[in-house]
Amino acid sequence: MNANPLALFWEGFTIESYAQIDAQSLLIRLQPADDYLPCCSGCNQHTLAIHDISTRRVRERDLFQYRVWLDVPVRRVRCTTCGPKLEQIRWLPGRQRLTAGMVSWIESLVRLMPIQHLATLLGLHWHTVKAIDHRRLKGYVDGIIASAVYRLNTSVLEGMNNKIKVIKRVAYGYRDNDYFFLKIKAAFPGKAR
Question: How high is the pLDDT of residue 130?
Fold first, then answer.
């Protein structure tokens, strides 16, 4: 078995060549792997029929001091069910110009630093970083609206837990559990009816 650690990065593709574009950029040209059948993005069926091939230049995560660009040959497959469709590349969703690894890296970094700083650090336009952060935050919209409409919190429960811990700490541990529960009930008498 020929183990290739680079196969972990770009599933279904192998490195054809690489070149240094400038002092800070690296271009990696990929080619489809011989043992990998293209998959239709519509029905997820593997097919051998290729309609056409176009090369797309996409951005990958930085490698040390280099900004990495990939030249990816994207095939349109001739699916028997769907007709001509783009092949499904799991690490390159849709028609994006950024790999899924780059997008998840941006999503994790945008939580730690401002959008403009991150855009400068990665060499991207700030609008690109903002759009990725906007897509990430869309998943939280329902929770944010619910927390604004229904003002529920656990502050009372946290206070009760803290009071029970104080009772336990002051007594240095009770030998009698019934007495311990009586102390807790005395601390929280509840509402008189």
Answer: 94
